[in-house]
Structures are given as C-alpha cells and as structure tokens.
C-alpha cells in the first residue's frame, strides 16, 4: 500500500482545509521524510486523518460516532478526511465526513458519511461502496489489513510506543508481537516443541522394538530363496493348467449355446409356419384384389358411360312431362298481356280529364297559403310582443327584489363596521406584529429544541453513568479472575516442580528409554536360554570369546523391578506432560485476562471522560436555555401590550401560530366588509337605473301590441273568404296527391304490362329451350347406346380372362389401395422372416458341426 494524497478539514488544532500531495517530487526524490513540530502543532492529526479516511476511527479516540466527535475542531460545524492510496488491487479514494445539523456550530451531530471509490486517470471513478457498515470490509479487501493490523504495522500510536519503551524484555516481546501481528510464530514454536517431544518418544520406542528383531543367517536366507523359486515354478504350471481348463469350459459353453439357439430357431420356425398358414386366406384375397385392380380402369370407363346414359334418360323423361304445362302457360301469358294494355290506356285518359281542374285548385291554394302566412306572421308578432312584455315585468320584479336585498345587506355591513372599528388598526399594524410573532415563534422553537438537547444530554449522562458502573463492575470481576488465574498458575507450577523433584522432564524420558532398551535386551537374552546354559565361568564364550559372563545363571537381573520402574516413569511423564499443558493453558488464560483487563480499564477511562463531557455540556445547555427563556418572556410581554386594544392576551397560554391566523382572519373580515359595502352601493345604483329603463320599455311594447292585434284581425278575415271558395271548388282534396295518385295508377298499369310481356317472353324461351333439349337428348341417347354395348362386351371378356365369372364377383374381390398395401406388407414380412430363419438355422448347424469336429 502506498499513500498518494491526503486532504482534511477542521481536525483537532488544524482549522480549515489542508492538502498534502505525496506524489510531489520533493517527497518522491528523497524517499523518506519526517513530520516535526512543537507539541499541539498537529503532527498526530495528520496520522489521525489517514486512519479516519480509511476506517472512520483513530488510534487515540477509537471510532467516531453520532453521539460524540472529539476530533472535530472546536467552534466548527463540519469536518472531513480524504486519502488517495495505491495497492495491488488498484488506485482508490476513501472519503469520510461528518457535520452538524443545519450547518450550525451548536447543532446536533448527524450520522457520518463514509465511501470508497475507484480512481481513474481518464475521468471520475465509480463509487464501489457508500454504506458505512460495509466500507471497512472493502478496505480490508483492497489493502489486506483491518484497523488493528494497520495501527500495529503501519501507524504506531503514541500510547503503544510509550508502553513499549517502559516495558521489560518479556513485555517488549509481547508488545512487538501485538504490534507486528506475529503472535502466531510463538504458537508455532510451542507446537513444534511439543511435536518434537512426542516424535522423539515414538522414535525411542521404535528403536527399542527394532533392537529385539532377529536377523536371518545367509544359509537360512538361501534356503528361503530356493523355496520361493519352487513356489514360483509351481505357480506357473498351475496357471497353464487353469488356462487350458478355461478354454475347455469355453468350448463346451459355445456348443451348449449353439444347441440352444438351434432349438430356439426351430420353435420360431414352427410359430412362423403357423402364422403363414393362418395368413393363407388373406394371401388369396390379396391375389384376387390385385387381379381386380388391373380391371379398375376399364370398369371405371364403363361405369362413367352407364351413369351419363342413365342421367340423360332421366332428364329426357322429365322434359317430356313438363312440355304440355309450358305450352298452356304460354297461352295464359298472352291473355294477361292484352288485359294489362287495356288498363294502361284507361288510366291515361282519366289523368287527361283532371289536369285543367287541378291547375285552378293550385292557384287558389297558393293564394290561400299567402294569406295564411300573413295571419301566422301577425299572430307570431303579437305573441312575441306579449311574451316580451311578460319577461320585462318578471325581470322588473327580480330587480326590485334584488334592490330590497341589497339594501338589507348594506345595513348589515354598516352594523359590522361600527362594531369592529378597532380592527382598522390591523391594516397598518399587522405586518409589524406578524414579524414579531414570527420571531417569537422562532424563539419558542429554539427553546423547545434546546430543552430537547438538554433532555438528550441528561439521557446521555445517565447512560454514561450506567456504562461506567457496568465497566467498574466488570473490572472488579475481571481483576478477581486475573488473581485467581495467577494463583492457579502458581499452584500448578509448584505442583509440576514437586512432581519433577528438581529434575527435568527430558531426564525422566531418557531414563525410561534406557529401561526400555534394557527390557528388550533381557527379553532377547531370555530367548537365548540354551546358549546361556552352556556358559561356564573361566571359559570363553563360544559367540563373543569373552571370559566374563555377567548374565550367566544366577546373575541375570529379574525384569519385574525394571518393568515396575518403567511403569512409574510412564505415569510420572504423563502426569508431568498434563501439568505442563495445564501450565501453558493457564499462562494463555492469564495473558488473555490481563489483555481484557487493560481494554476494560481503557473503556472505564473513556466512559469517565464521556460522563465528564456530558456533565459540562449539560451545565452549558442549562445556562443557555435559561437565557433563551428570559428573552422569550420579555418579547412576549412586549407583543401582548400591543395586542391588548384588540382584546388579545398573549401572556396566557395562547397558541402563537393560531393567533397569527386569527389576526389575519380579522383583517380579512374587515377588508371583506369594506369591499362588500362599496360593492353593494354600486349594485344599488345600477338596480335603480335598470328599474327606470324597464318601466319605459314595458310601456312602449304595450302600445305596439295594440297595433299588431288590429292587423291580425284583418288578415284572418281575408283568409276565411279564400278558404270558402276553395272548398266549393275542390273540397278537402290535395291536387298534388290526386295527380300523384293517378300517375301511380298509370305507372302500375305500365309496370303490369311490362311484367306480362316479360312473362310471355320467358314462357316462350322456356318452351323453345325444352323442345330443343328433348331433341338433343334423344340424339345423344341413341348415339351412346351403341358405345355402351361395346364397352359391356369388352368388360365381360376381361372379367372371364381375369378369372371372374360375373361383375358381382369382381366387385366383391376389390379392395382399397391402403388395404392392399397392408396385406402386401404383411405377406412380405412373413416371407422375409422365413428366409431369415432358414439362413440362421443353416449357419448355427454349420458352426455346431465345426465345433464338434
């Protein structure tokens, strides 16, 4: 890992924003540099900024949370730290920041933001993770170190270094292991020592056992070699016999298999013969069907000619039956045509007689329609004028009612304005009062927020007290555990020293190994009982030539004492090893308890500091809260004095937000009534003007109505005299309808005439066509009879040639193409199976004869 750039803002004593570019040539050229300066200059802050950007924590303060941020510079509202680093995984940017609510110095701390993103040369990199709880895991993945390892191997905190300088050699070793993370090598060393001891004990046992193994003499080794050679020759002979026997067994199995196959084929042949015998009627039916299929074309030609001859004969018979009826229908159509012509002529003569009268009636009707229009026009004008007079009178009544209501409304408005005359002050004074109320409401919210902060700090103080009590309790318990662990360790160590009696454990193991070798030697000597019996004092040993015989009879030490000593040593070694393991476990437990005790003491110090900070913050907040409350009450009294003329008492528990709304409502109500007064006065003026205008219009329209009624009476008299003349001439009949009726009669007569002529033409065509069809069919039937006789004779000859005695047998033998194909496939399948079975049977018999030979 290599740090490339560092940026931070408002951390400890370093106010404002700072940036250090480690890729600058000044750093890159020398390769090593130092951070120097007086105490409090901010040297450690630079290292804290690196840890804060990477892990959101520092070695001195631990993790920075929402409840407390001691690293943020005093009297500032935000801080951040950003580091750009490079590792084997690539180049990355880590960013951590935290600020106070609304950017205010006294605002509450909000939750910190922590993210890691990829750095690219060609543009902004993508964000890898922005969730605060997951960023440390990504950091570990990219760097390979968590916070503890980073602060022990990369950044050595001041507290740890001071502890290291004041420690003794043993403690320095432990601190170095903690800083460098090499505790595992001590554990490996202990396990290697334990493994070496166990393997050494196992080696001693194996050597003792190997010393009792008897070696073969050259004569015995040669004898065993001859026996092995004989056994190998015997094995070769038996293998050849076995192979020959297996070949014989295989030959017998092949013969037995061939017999079985021949029997199976014979059974299958018998079954096939039975199937072929059952299929024989179908085979004969197939033969007849195939012969009949050869005559299908000739029979189809004959059947077609028969059908055509039969159809033509039936058609000729039907036409001959229809011919008399067609001749009678032709005569009837001739009579109907004559009657239709006479009716048409009569209708035309009647129309010619009525035409002059219809013209005179039409002239009278036109004059009568004009007079009727005059009557209708005069009546409509009279009705329209009357309706207009009625509408104007209704409108006048409505306007008069509106005039009365407007007067009542104006009276109510005057009464309201007199009653609420004090509200006129709001027109000019509401804006200032509203601003003061807004400021008062903001002060109230600030007091409420500060009270909430006080309650939160009080709760934090209670929490700190509880945590402190819990940490003190755990500290006392852990101290007792450490004392008990140390005491147990010392007792176990003393017990081990007592058990070993001032000797080392390896000395007891060496003694045990020597006794084991001695025991093996005694066993070997006991096995040489015959040789030992031949030993004589003063005579040389036949094996080694020695003159002294320490193991002669009477001088052999008994093995019982040695075995008993070995058992004692074994028990002592096992007990010592168990106590040694116990000592190591207690040492580890003592170190673990001591480490936990140190961590707990550190927690106690931190919680105590948090409690002291909470108490100080609580005192400052209470003082600030009291000042805010006093300012709020003074402002409230001032505003209440201004609102007193309006009947508003602000000193009581009045909701300020609702008071603002009520004042606005009173002002709006006052302005509404003022506007209403002006509006009603304008409305009264307009209504009085409208009523005068309506009175004049009504009088004018009444005079016009009298004139229109006189004109209506004159038009009605002229229309009555014209109507009487028309009734005398033509009655109530309509000349247009009468003319249309006679025209329709003529059209119907002409249509009947055309229809009769069409029916006559149709009857004549049908009669002519029927006669021609009878003649044509008679000719064709005569010509086709000779052809039919020839086809019948030729087909009967073909039937006899195909083996059919008559046409009925031929039709009975016919099959469809699908039926013939199915029977042919069945016959072909049976023939193929018969051929295949014969070939297989001959093959198996030949193979059997060859095997037997």
Task: Explain how this protein is built.
With 853 residues, the chain is mostly helical. Among the domains are: 2-144, 3-Layer(aba) Sandwich (Rossmann fold); 220-295 and 807-852; 461-621. The protein is 77% helix and 6% strand. The protein contains 17 helices and eight strands. The protein has helices spanning 25-30, 43-55, 135-143, 147-153, 158-166, 169-180, 183-210, 218-294, 296-419, 426-500, 505-527, 529-533, 559-643, 656-730, 735-801, 807-813, 817-852, and strands spanning 2-11, 14-21, 57-58, 62-63, 78-87, 90-99, 113-118, 127-129. The strands form two sheets. Strands 2-1-5-6-7-8 form a six-stranded antiparallel sheet. A two-stranded antiparallel ribbon has the order 3-4. Helix 10 (426-500) packs antiparallel against helix 13, helix 10 crosses helix 14 (656-730) and helix 11 (505-527) runs antiparallel to helix 13. The longest helix is centred in the middle third of the chain and has 124 residues, at 296-419. The radius of gyration is 68 Å and the shape is flat. The model has no long low-confidence stretch (mean pLDDT 77).
Taken from the alpha-carbon principal axes, the silhouette is flat
Binned, the helix content reads over 70%
**Discrete helix count:** 17
- Please state the average pLDDT score: 77
Give the helix/strand class: mainly alpha
Low-pLDDT sequence parts: none
Radius of gyration: 68 Å
User: Would you count the extended β strands for me?
Assistant: 8
Q: What's the end-to-end separation, in Å?
A: 90 Å
SS strand fraction: 5-15%
